[in-house]
Amino acid sequence: MTDITAHPLQEITLDQQVALHTAATRLAEEFDGIYGTETIERFLQTSHDQFATAASIANFLPLLAERFARQRLRALARVEGHHRDGRPVVLFLCTHNAGRSQMALGFFTHLAGDQAIAWSGGSEPGIEVSPSATAAMTERGIDISEEFPKPWTDEVVRAADVVVTMGCGDLCLIFPGTRYENWTVDDPAGLDLADVRPIRDEIERRVRRLLDELNVPATR
Fold this sequence. Notes:
This is Arsenate reductase ArsC. InterPro entries: Phosphatase-like_N (IPR048716), Ptyr_pPase (IPR023485), Ptyr_pPase_sf (IPR036196). Keywords: Arsenical resistance. Helices cover 45% and strands 10% of the residues. It has 220 residues and is an alpha/beta fold. The chain folds into two domains: 14-79, Helicase, Ruva Protein, domain 3, CATH 1.10.8.1060; 89-213, Rossmann fold.
């Protein structure tokens, strides 16, 4: 197996090496018959590299790399026609993937259940999801504390039926046949909980409207 743990900017512990190799094995089993070892390892390596310089998540690096690689591989499988189940896919994008897009993702997955798929990403991913955004969503019974800021990638954008942007400007990749929406929503970065609540509520209204337009009944 290729050494998927080498990275020039961060020491990789033995435990992390073991965890990454275990992740590669799990992904290979999950995508058996769709993608081979070389593709699995390449996606895990590049996903690992996306987070390797963020010191605050060092202990969770193998888990984040595996989760991100899995999302990207599922997106690629949709793009290449290996997996199509008829469910709409929505991608929420903002600058840091630390507030608006995470709250939108939280509402969408909470309300849609397994009737649709949602992902999120940022043009300049932050280090952690905004604590105020997390607290505001907790008030609504939605836990986004285990989410993490991440970039968007070519295959993730291409796999989406709808791309919702919130403040990421002209950086978003444009693909023919994809529906794009721009939501003008204030950035919760640096705001306290009281100031984030109106932003949260506006995002919920927009998510509910989007679900209705996609003919996906809200489960709550």
